[in-house]
Write a structure and sequence with these properties.
Layout lengths: L6 E7 L2 E9 L24 E2 L6 E2 L6 E6 L2 E5 L1 H7 L6 E9 L8 E9 L4 H14 L1 E9 L2 E10 L2 E7 L20 H13 L13 H14 L18 H11 L16 H18 L1
Length: about 290
C-alpha cells in the first residue's frame, strides 16, 4: 500500500519550481501509549482545567491564552489576534543556499519528511536530486506551515528527496552550559581507548541490526495482561562497581578477545604524536619488568 501524502509544497530555487508531496518518514504508531482510566470503573478520564485561584473548573468558553511577560503577569490574546500572528502557509520551500551536506551538524536535526514528485514535477524533481547528489551539497531554506516558519534542509537519499526540519540556533542551548572536566588524558589510556574503538568499528551504519527491545517487552507484557496473566517486576540488576579507568579499559579489551599486546593502530596516517601514544603501553610494560 503506497504511503499517504500529508501535504503538498513547491521547492523554489532560482526560477525553477519543483512541485512535491510530503510524506511522514516515521511511524507515530511505533510508540506504545497508555490511556488514563478511572480505577474503579475502568472508563477513560477527561481532562479539565482548574483555576489556580478560585479552585473551580473552567469551561472551554472561559479560557483565554496569555503570555507571561513578568512573574505572575500576563498579556492576553483573543483567538483572532493569535490567528493574525500566525505565519501564513505559503506551501513553498524557498531555497536560500546550497551547502556541503557534512557541514550541517546533526544536533540541528528535528524532524524528517520524505518528498515525492507531485503532478508535473517529475523532471525537475529528478534534476534537483541528481544535481545535489553529484555536488555533495544540500539545499537550505525555509518552509511555512501550520502557523510557523521552519528552517529546512533538502537532500537526496536513494533516489528520493528528504526534507529535514532543523532547529533554529536560538532553539539550541549553548554547549558551553554543559559542565565538562579539565582532567588530563594519559597517553596509555588514550591508546587503549583507541584500540577498543577500532575493535568495535564498522565501515557503515546498519540500523537493521538494532531493535527497540523496550517496546517489544512492553507489547509482550500487554499481550500477557490481555490473556489474564500477572506481570511481575524483574529482579533488580546488580550494582555496577566503579573501578579504575585503566582496569576498565583492559577488561573491555579482554571481553573483546584482545590483549594489550595486540594493539591495532588507528586507520589513518599516524603523526609523530600518534607514534608516541601507540608506544606508550609498551614502555609501561617494559618498565614493569625492571
Amino acid at each position: 500500500m503506497p504511503p499517504r501524502s500529508i501535504g503538498t509544497a513547491t521547492i523554489s530555487f532560482g526560477l525553477v519550481s519543483v512541485p512535491v508531496s510530503l510524506y511522514s518518514a516515521s511511524e507515530s504508531s511505533a510508540t506504545v501509549s497508555f490511556n488514563m482510566l478511572h480505577r474503579t470503573c475502568g472508563n477513560r478520564l477527561k481532562q479539565q482545567y482548574i483555576c489556580s485561584k478560585e479552585g473551580n473548573i473552567v469551561e472551554k468558553d472561559d479560557i483565554a491564552k496569555g503570555y507571561e511577560f513578568a512573574k505572575g503577569q500576563y498579556v492576553t490574546f483573543t483567538p483572532e489576534e493569535i490567528k493574525a500572528l500566525d505565519e501564513k502557509a505559503t506551501n513553498s520551500i524557498d531555497i536560500a543556499e546550497f551547502v556541503p551536506l557534512d557541514s550541517v551538524d546533526r544536533m540541528y536535526l528535528d524532524k524528517v519528511y520524505y518528498l515525492g514528485p507531485d503532478k508535473g514535477g517529475d523532471r525537475a524533481y529528478r534534476l534537483l536530486g541528481e544535481a545535489l547528489k553529484v555536488t555533495g551539497r544540500a539545499a537550505v531554506g525555509q518552509y511555512s506551515a501550520r502557523g510557523k516558519q521552519h528552517l529546512v534542509l533538502v537532500r537526496p537519499l536513494d533516489g528520493v528527496l528528504v526534507m529535514e526540519q532543523l532547529h533554529y540556533p536560538a532553539e539550541l542551548k549553548p554547549v558551553a552550559e554543559v559542565p565538562h572536566p579539565e582532567a588530563p588524558v594519559k597517553d596509555v589510556e588514550l591508546a587503549l581507548a583507541r584500540q577498543l574503538i577500532e575493535q568495535s568499528s564498522t565501515d557503515e551504519f546498519r540500523p537493521e541490526n538494532y531493535r527497540d527491545t523496550v517496546r517489544e517487552r512492553v507489547l509482550d507484557a500487554i499481550q500477557r495482561k490481555v490473556e489474564g496473566q500477572e506481570i511481575t517486576a524483574d529482579a533488580a540488576p546488580p550494582e555496577t562497581k566503579i573501578i579504575d579507568l585503566m582496569d576498565a579499559l583492559k577488561a573491555s579489551l579482554a571481553k573483546k578477545g584482545a590483549t594489550t599486546d595486540q594493539m591495532k593502530p588507528a586507520k589513518r596516517v599516524a603523526s609523530k604524536n600518534d607514534e608516541e601514544v601507540e608506544a606508550a603501553p609498551k614502555k609501561r610494560k617494559a618498565a614493569g619488568r625492571g
